[in-house]
Amino acid sequence: MGTAYGYVRVSTKEQNEDRQMRALHEVQIAEKNIFVDRQSGKDFDRPKYQSLLRKMRPEDLLYVKSIDRLGRNYEEILEQWRILTKEKKVDIIVLDMPLLDTRRGKDLMGTFLSDIVLQVLSFVAENEHKNIRERQKEGIDAAKLRGVQFGRPQKPVPDNFIQVYHRWINKEISGVEAAKECNLTKTTFYRWAKEERKESF
Q: 11 an active-site residue?
């Protein structure tokens, strides 16, 4: 029997790893053998996962809380499963899905059933991510229609902006001086000046 490892991935800054860590502690994975990646799902260069791959040896055991920790989509999950089981020759246990335990059913039928379950679950995991993104987009669109503002609140226009703007238009002061007088960045001053010019026509 090899060494037991755990892998945790959180895909956004808002998530924390407590739920995954708790599940790994329950199966008594040593803290030093738990590898954690905290990063955006868009950036999938996972340094801790790569370290884990290098460290694992044949007959080691990898625990993950759920199948989608292995990849962002169907193809990636299946590819990582292949690398782990076929190239690294390690066993995998998916805690959320007891059927995905490669220690069981090492015969042809067991492997066949495990592969079918894996493919179905990988497909479901990818679709769930797509559905979540779609629901988020729909929620944002609906909020925008209700007038909800996203992003940083817009800075109020300074009281002296129009006066300074006209002095800048008449070439009495430079853009840098105008921005400074309004206590704005040069970029913000130019943006507002452009909007003011549009409204003037």
A: yes
How long, in residues, is the chain?
A: 201
Q: What is the dihedral of CA 14, 18, 23, 26, to 10 degrees?
A: 180
11, 40, 66, 200: the active-site residue: 11
From residue 195, alpha-carbon distances to 62, 92, 178 in Å are 58, 59, 16
pLDDT for the residue 57:
95
83 within a domain of the structure (yes/no): yes
The span from the CA of 125 to the CA of 100, in Å, is: 14
Residue 28 has pLDDT above 90, yes or no: yes
The Cα-based distances of 181 to 138, 172, 174, 192, 194 in angstroms read: 42, 13, 11, 14, 17
Q: Are residues 75 and 109 in the same domain?
A: yes
Against a cut of 0.90, is the pTM above it?
no
Give the separation between CA 110 and CA 104, rounded to whole angstroms: 7
Structural domain containing residue 114: 4-138
Question: What is residue 9's three-state secondary structure?
Answer: strand
Please indicate, yes or no, if residue 134 is contained in any of the structural domains.
yes
Give a yes or no: residue 189 inside a domain.
yes
